[in-house]
Design a protein that fits this description.
Length: 182
């Protein structure tokens, strides 16, 4: 675990399973049909139960890439799930814009819904093929910039599933914020 204080907020990196997180919200890596799938999306729907898909179908007709929508957390400890749609990696500059936007929209949903603690997974870096060494600095920089002007969010935690992903986020955080303490 590594963390960085930004004004009165904290950005944390930890390794683990996001379905077990007790932050108020967790951020899912969804697809634009909001149809469920593999990876973390599959894990969240399995752990959270069918109420989540029911709510998605009742309220949304999909979600564009680079955006996100909010549901309740079903059986999870988290009260809310933010379903963010990251880009499929294709090597174009648009990918970074979409990835940044997926994070920013998710943070804005936290502000709009008075959510003070949120956990993100490493959006787009699994099935969607975004190299984690490129994705991690975008995720971290977007979050740091937001927290600088949005003290209402007290905790943003990145919950990274495997060691390779955790290490890439740690490397990116240390590069962006060299004074970071373990
Ligand atoms: N907790 C935290 N992170 C996890 C977990 C977990 N339980 N399980 C996997 N990860 P991915 P994407 C990590 O593939 O690349 C789905 O089918 C995983 O190791 O879940 O955005 C959707 O429906 C990786 O670091 O999401 C979409 O169709 C990260 O979560 C598509 O996959 C993201 O990997 C989205 O692909």
């Amino acid at each position: 675990m590594i963390s960085l204080v930004i004004n009165s907020s904290r950005l944390e990196l930890s390794q683990g399973d996001i379905t077990q997180e007790a932050t108020e919200a967790i951020v899912n890596a969804a697809n634009s049909h909001l149809a469920g799938g593999g990876g973390v999306d599959g894990a969240i729907h399995r752990a959270g139960g069918p109420a989540i898909m029911k709510e998605l179908k009742a309220n949304y007709n999909g979600c564009p890439t680079g955006s996100s929508v909010l549901t309740g957390g079903g059986n999870l400890k988290a009260k809310y799930i933010i379903h963010a749609v990251g880009p499929r990696y294709g090597g174009s500059p648009k990918d970074a814009t979409s990835l940044r936007s997926a994070h920013l929209k998710s943070l804005k949903l936290c502000t709009a819904n008075n959510i003070k603690s949120v956990s993100f997974c490493a959006i787009s870096t699994g099935i969607y093929g975004y190299p984690v060494e490129e994705a991690a600095p975008i995720a971290i920089q977007t979050t740091m910039d937001y927290l600088k002007t949005h003290p209402e969010i007290k905790l943003v935690r990145f919950v990274l599933f495997d060691t390779k992903t955790y290490n890439a986020f740690e490397t990116a955080l240390k590069k962006i914020a060299p004074g970071v303490t373990l």
